[in-house]
Amino acid sequence: CSRKRAFQITKPFLPILEWLPNYRLKEWLVSDVISGVSTGLVATLQGLAYALLVAVPVGYGLYSAFFPILTYFFLGTSRHISVGPFPVVSLMVGSVVLSMAPDDNFLIDGSNATGINGTETLIDTEARDAQRVLIASTLTFLVGILQVVFGVLQIGFIVRYLADPLVGGFTTAAAFQVFVSQLKIVLNVSTKNYNGVLSIIYTLIETFENIGTTNIADLIAGLLTIFVCMAVKEINDRFKHKIPIPIPIEVIVTIVATGISYGADLEKKYNAGIVKSIPRGFLPPEPPDVSLFSQMIAASFSIAIVAYAIAVSVGKVYATKYDYAIDGNQEFIAFGLSNLFSGAFSCFVATTALSRTAVQESTGGKTQVAGIISAGIVLIAIVALGKLLEPLQKSVLAAVVIANLKGMFMQVFDVPRLWRQNKVDAMIWVFTCVASIILGLDLGLLAGLLFGLLTVVLRVQFPSWGGFGNIPGTDIYKKVKDYKNAIEPEGVKILKFSSPIFYANIDGLKSSLKSTVGFDAVKVYNKRLKALRKIQKLIKKGKLKATKNGIISEPGITNEAFEIDEEPEDNEDLQVPTKEVEIQVDWNSELPVKVNIPKVPIHSLILDFGAVTFLDVVAVRSIKNIIREFERIDVRVYFASYQDNLISQLERSAFFDDIVRKDIFFLTVHDAVLYIRNQMTHSDNQDPIFEKISLMQESKEPIEFTEPSPTDDELDVQEE
Fold first, then answer.
1. What pLDDT score does 593 carry?
2. Closest CA to 615 of 502, 506, 507, 513
3. Angle at 606 between CA 603 and CA 608, to 5 degrees
4. Beta bridge partners of 469
5. 601 Cβ contact list (under 8 Å, min separation 6)
6. Would you say residue 427 has pLDDT above 90?
7. What does the DSSP 8-state code read for residue 393?
8. CA–CA distance from 344 to each of 12, 56, 137, 314, 656 (Å)?
9. Which residue of 4, 51, 437, 648 is 20 to 30 Å from 603, comparing CA positions?
10. What span, in angstroms and rounded, lies between the C-alpha atoms of 288 and 345?
11. If DSSP codes are grouped into helix, strand and coil, which group holds residue 311?
12. How far apart are CA 269 and CA 272, in angstroms?
C-alpha cells in the first residue's frame, strides 16, 4: 500500500491522470483553444437544433451540449471526440418522449391556455413541455445507469455485434427519419406526432396533405440555409488542405438569419415560427421520475447501445490515426456517468456527433482541453447570449440539422460496393435500413441485429465443403472441383467440412458425406443384409453351397436366385448369431441373388477437420455413428488436421472406445494418406471389401446373420 500503487490503481478509472501530466502546454494549448472555440460555436447551434428532434424547448439543447463534456473530460479515453447531442440518438429519445407525452394528453379549455388548434381544442404547452423535459431527463438518467452497469460488468464487447453494414443501414434510416421530422418544421406545417410502426409514412402523408398551409417565409429561410450550408461544407471538404480552419457556416447563417428575423419582424408580419424564449442561466438539478423507468427500459437499452457504439466507432477512427488506444469498457463508464450527471440537469442523452468531432480534430484539437473550452463557449451562450437568439426561426435550425445529414445519406452509395464484395453484408445493410424506416429505430435496430445474427447462423449451418485431391508430387490437397490437376488417392475419399459441427448442421455433414463418397452407408449395409438373407434361404434349399472360397451353385441345378425380387425392402430379421464356417462375399462382383447392391469403390475415408473449431454432444454422437456405419461395410474412417482442443473435447464426451481409437487421428491429410498406402501395401492379397460371415453349412436350422447389438448411444438400422 503506497502512494505510487494507489495512483496506478486510480489511473484506469481517471484517464485524465494519464494524459494531463504529459500535456505539452506550449505546443498544444493554442491549437486546443482555437479548436475549442470553433467546436463550441458549432456545438451551440447543434444543441439548439437537435432539441427539436427530442421535442423539448430548444434551450435544453444548450444544457445537453454543456454538461456531458464536464464529466467526460475526466473519465473519457478518447482525446478527440466532441461529446454532446447526435441526431440519431436525439431522434430515438424524441420518439420515446412523443409516445409518453403526446399532445392529446394536454388538451385543455381554450380560455386558460395558448394553443395551436383553434379555439376549441387548445394545448397546455407549458405543462406539455415540462413533462417532456422530465421524460427526456429521466430517460437520460436510466441510459446512464445502464451504461455504467455495462462498463462495470466489462461487456464493452457487445458493440461488436453491431456490424458496419448494420450501423450503415441503421444510420441512413435514422437520417431519413430525421429529415422527415424536420421537413414539417421547415415548411411550418402542423401534424400529429406519430410514433411506432409506419409512423414516418403517416407523418409524410399528413405533411403533404397540409402542404397548402406552408409558411413561405419559413420555407425560403430553410431552403436558403440548406443550400448555403451544404455549399460551404463542400468548399470546406475540397479545400481543407488550404483552409486552416473550416468556415463555421452554421454560426454565420444563424447570426444572419437572427438579424433578418429581428429586423424584418418575420413573426408578426409573416407568422414565422421562431424560438421565442430561451431560458437564461441554469435550472436547479432535479431527480428523475423513477416511476417512468418501467415504461422506457426497453428503449433505453437500445439507446444506450447505439449511443455507445457511435461514440466508440468515431473515437477508434481518431485513436488509430493518432496512435493511441481507447478502452471500450471505460468509455461505457465515462458516457454512463456523463448521462447520469447531465440527466439531473434536464439534459437529453449525449454521445458524439461526427461533424462536430471532425471540426474539433481538423481545427487542431489535440486533447479534451479543446472539449472543455468548447463547453465554455456553450456556457457563454447559456448565460449571456440566449436572449439574442430568441428571434431565430425554427426552420433555420431544422435546415441546419438537414444540412448535417449529407454524410449519412451518402452511405447509400456503399450498397453497390458491398454487393460486389459480399452480398450478405449488402442484404444486412438494406434489411436494417428498410426495417428501421418501417418499424421505427428501436425495433428496426433489433430486427437488423437479429437478421445479421441469422445470416451468421445460416452461414455456419450451410458451410462450404468438398472432396479433396492431391496435387501430384506434393503434400498439398485441394478441392477437386476447383483444381483440375488434383487427383484423389485410389480407394480413398477426402472430405473437408469448413465449419464448427453442431446440432444445426450435422445433417449437412451427413449429406456432404453421401455426395462425396457416392453412396449411403446405411442403405448399402441394409442391401447387403437383404442379400445375405436370400443366400441363406438358397443354401438351406441346397441351391447354393457356402465354402471358405465363396458361394457356389450345385452342378446341374438351376440357380433360382435370379428370379425377380418381389420382396418388399424392409429391415426386419436382419440380425442373428454367427456360427462356425467363414465364407467371403465380394460385394462388388456379380452376386447369385437378384438384389441391387450399391458398389463401394473405396476402402478409406479421411475427414479433414482443419476448419472445425468445436463439436457439441450431438455432433460427437453422430460422428461416432458415422464411423460405425462405414466400418461395418469395411470402410475405415480417419481424421486429419484436427485442432488440439477437439481431442480433449472428444475425451470428455466418451468418444473413444475399443473400436474408435486415437490412432485414426493424423496431424495432416498427407500423413493419413501415407498411412493408408502403407497399410494397403502390407495387407493380404484378399480384397478388403469382402465381408466375412459365418454359416452352418449342414444345419437344418435357419442360418442367421448378425451384427453386434447397438449400444445405447447408437441408432439401430430401423431407427436410422
1. 63
2. 502
3. 170
4. 478
5. 491, 518, 588
6. yes
7. B
8. 26, 16, 7, 27, 63
9. 648
10. 10
11. helix
12. 8
Residue in the block written with cell 407568422: 271
The predicted pLDDT at position 319 comes to: 87
Pairing of strands 691-695, 83-84: unpaired
In three-state form (DSSP H/G/I as H, E/B as E, the rest C), the secondary structure along 616-636 is CHHHHHHHHHHHHHHHCCCCE
Residue 553, classed as helix, strand or coil, is strand
Angle among Cα 469, 470, 475 to the nearest 5 degrees reads: 140
Q: Which of 59-73, 145-159, 296-310, 548-562 has the lowest mean pLDDT?
A: 548-562
Under 8 Å between Cβ of 333 and 148? yes
State residue 584's pLDDT score: 56
Look up residue 518 and give its DSSP letter: S
If we measure between CA atoms, which residue out of 29, 340, 199 comes closest to residue 207?
A: 199
Model confidence at 149: pLDDT above 60: yes
Task: List beta partners, residue 605.
Answer: 493, 637
In angstroms, the CA 688 to CA 634 distance is 7
Among 225, 699, 632, 169, residue whose Cα is nearest residue 439: 169
Phi, psi of 671 (to 5 degrees): -60, -45
Q: Would you list the domain boundaries of the chain?
A: 30-108+123-412, 465-519+600-681
Q: Does residue 557 carry a pLDDT above 60?
A: no
Query: How would you classify residue 270: left for phi > 0, otherwise alpha for psi between -120 and 50, otherwise beta?
Result: alpha
| Model pLDDT, residue 576 | 39
HEC readout, 40-76: HHHHHHHHHHHHHHHCCCCHHHHHHHHHHHHHHHHHC
CB 718 within 8 A of CB 573: no
Find cell 433505453 and name the residue. Answer: 300
C-alpha to C-alpha distances, 203 to 546, 655, 678, nearest whole angstrom: 88, 62, 77
For the record, the C-alpha cell of 669 comes out as 491429410
- Residue 380's pLDDT band, with cuts at 50, 70 and 90, is very high
CA separation for the pair 347, 662 (Å, rounded):
65
Superfamily (CATH H level) for 465-519+600-681: STAS domain (3.30.750.24)
* Residue 544 main-chain phi, psi, to 5 deg: -135, 155
- In this structure, are residues 649 and 615 in contact, taking their beta carbons and an 8 Å threshold? yes
- pLDDT for the residue numbered 592: 64
List phi, psi (to 5°) of 305: -70, -45
Q: Are 374 and 82 in contact (CB under 8 A)?
A: yes
Q: Distance between CA atoms of 45 and 126, rounded to whole angstroms?
A: 24
Q: What is the pLDDT of residues 475-488, one digit of tens each?
A: 899 998 889 888 99
d(CA 415, CA 427): 9
φ, ψ at 541 (rounded to 5°): -80, -5
How many other CB atoms sit within 10 Å of the CB of residue 688?
14
Residue closest to 385 by CA, chosen among 505, 231, 224, 275: 275
Distance CA 107, CA 115 (A): 9
Residues pairing with 122 in the sheet: 108
Read off the pLDDT of residues 33-80 as tens digits, 9 standing for 90 and up. Answer: 988 998 998 898 889 889 988 999 988 999 999 999 999 999 999 999
Q: Which residues pair with 479 in a beta bridge?
A: 468
Query: Which residue from 207, 221, 227 is spatially nearest to 270, judged by alpha carbons?
Result: 221
Q: Look up the pTM and report it.
A: 0.75
CB atoms within 10 A of CB 454: 13
Read off the amino acid at residue 280: R
